[in-house]
Design a protein that fits this description.
The complex is a heterodimer of chains A (232) and B (195). By secondary structure, chain A is mostly helical. In chain A, 55% of the residues lie in helices and 0% in strands. The termini of chain A are far apart. Chain B is mainly α and 195 residues long. Among the domains of chain B are: 60 residues, no CATH class; 49 residues. The chains are: A mainly alpha (232), B mainly alpha (195).
Chain lengths: 232, 195
């Protein structure tokens, strides 16, 4: 018997059952190799124990109201994630909507997931990456980003406006995985365990990449500062 | 939190070792605006993340989505698609077979007509044909116009003869022109020689 911590592979489940969530027909993830880690699922529904007759769906059907209250609230998180990857507001909106269509289609199975939010983020990430690969997507163009000035902020923060805008640019220059980690940790405030789960990395790799990313941003900022001081 | 403690936290932060709580402390510290000049880059980073946290979809995204869900409620049939395919195929075959057998059981086709009916039919047919031929003649009249086309065709052929003679004149004129050009060239040549 395989251990519960091992990553669950699609092919394994196909042999055993026709009803399991992870089988091709039901797997919500668009990428070719569905490799949802077992931790995604509540312990009760360990996929290695699934059999043909076991119906994974929850006993009750999720109503529209429930969906609205439990699933829709994560829409902003998903949008921000999509935007971090795609850099395009309109496309990110489309992606978010598409993800919710898929979540809606699986609404009765959502009960099986430990965290619907984590699951949805995986779907979003995969869909965005697929989009980048499939169509001839312009390389993450450095879009203009201007810090909104809040006139109630302390003076010093208003002066920082330009620096803050630069941070955006420097993040866009980071490699994809580091960008995602920054987004999930510094913007969304997710714990390392969740980030590791969503990005399918181990904990230490998350920490190391986060550190690298943060340092890279700081370095760029200081370079810019030095340049400006030299000019004076 | 004094500056020293903050500095320690900042170093931890860049090593990726701070907890969510510690990061919140740093955030609050920078939000106050009260930090030394050299901490500007870090402050900018935290400022940026704060702004990004507020990015949201339009407020009616949810309602819009629910509305679309309700509109697109799948027709119950859709769920058992395969079933309905087979069912309709079988039903169609059954209906076809039934009508086939039913047809054979029907009364035989009427073959005999009475004499009167035959004559009546004959007269009607004759009338119809006469009507049709009359219409046909009327329709043919406009075709007489075609004769005029042949008249005009003759005229056109005369014009083409005229064209031919003009072309001949043109050719002669061109020949004259080239002759004149040649004479000019010769005269230029003469001038050069004289020089």
């Amino acid at each position: 018997m395989k251990s519960v911590n091992q990553k669950h592979e699609r092919s394994v489940c196909q042999q055993v059952t026709g009803h399991c969530l992870l089988v091709t027909a039901h797997c919500p993830l668009p990428t070719a190799n569905c490799q949802l880690p077992t931790s995604f699922f509540k312990p009760k529904y360990s996929p290695h124990l699934c059999n043909k007759n076991f119906n994974h769906s929850s006993p009750h059907r999720m109503t529209t109201e429930e969906f609205k209250n439990r699933v829709l609230p994560i829409k902003d998180k998903l949008f921000r994630l999509a935007h971090r990857i795609l850099n395009d507001t309109e496309e990110s909106e489309d992606v978010t909507q598409e993800i919710f269509y898929r979540l809606w289609a699986r609404r009765n199975e959502l009960e099986n997931y430990r965290s619907i939010e984590a699951f949805a983020m995986v779907m979003t990430k995969n869909l965005c990456l697929d989009k980048i690969k499939s169509k001839h997507h312009q390389k993450a163009e450095l879009t203009e980003w201007n810090a909104p000035v809040d006139y109630h902020s302390p003076q010093k923060l208003i002066e920082l406006k330009e620096d803050v805008s630069n941070v955006h640019r420097f993040i866009q220059l980071l490699p994809e995985q580091q960008r995602l980690i920054i987004q999930m940790r510094d913007v969304e405030g997710l714990e390392f365990e969740e980030i590791a789960e969503i990005l399918e990395m181990n904990l230490n790799a998350v920490r190391v990449n986060l550190s690298r990313a943060r340092k890279a941003i700081r370095e760029q900022m200081m370079k810019k500062h030095d340049y400006e001081y030299q000019r004076d | 939190m004094n500056t020293k403690e903050i500095e320690i936290l900042i170093e931890k932060y860049f090593e990726g070792l701070t907890s969510i709580e510690e990061e919140r402390l740093l955030k609050d510290f920078f939000a106050s605006g009260d930090f030394p000049e050299e901490m500007k880059p870090v402050a900018a980073m935290f400022g940026y993340f704060e702004v990004e946290k507020e990015v949201k979809l339009s407020p009616d995204f949810s309602d819009e989505f629910i509305r679309q869900i309700n509109e697109k409620r799948k027709i119950p049939f859709y769920r058992h698609r395969k079933f309905w395919y087979y069912f309709s195929g079988v039903a169609a075959s059954i209906i076809f077979l039934i009508s086939f057998f039913y047809e054979n059981q029907n009364s035989p086709i009427k073959t005999k007509y009475t004499n009167e009916e035959a004559q009546l039919a004959y007269l009607q047919t004759k009338e119809t044909l006469a009507f049709v031929s009359g219409k046909f003649n009327a329709g043919v009249k406009p075709l007489h116009q075609i004769e005029k086309i042949t008249e005009n065709a003759d005229r056109i052929s005369q014009i083409s003869k005229f064209n031919q003679s003009i072309n001949k004149v043109n050719n002669n004129v061109e020949k004259m022109q080239t002759g004149v050009d040649n004479i000019r060239k010769l005269s230029k040549f003469n001038i050069i020689i004289e020089q």
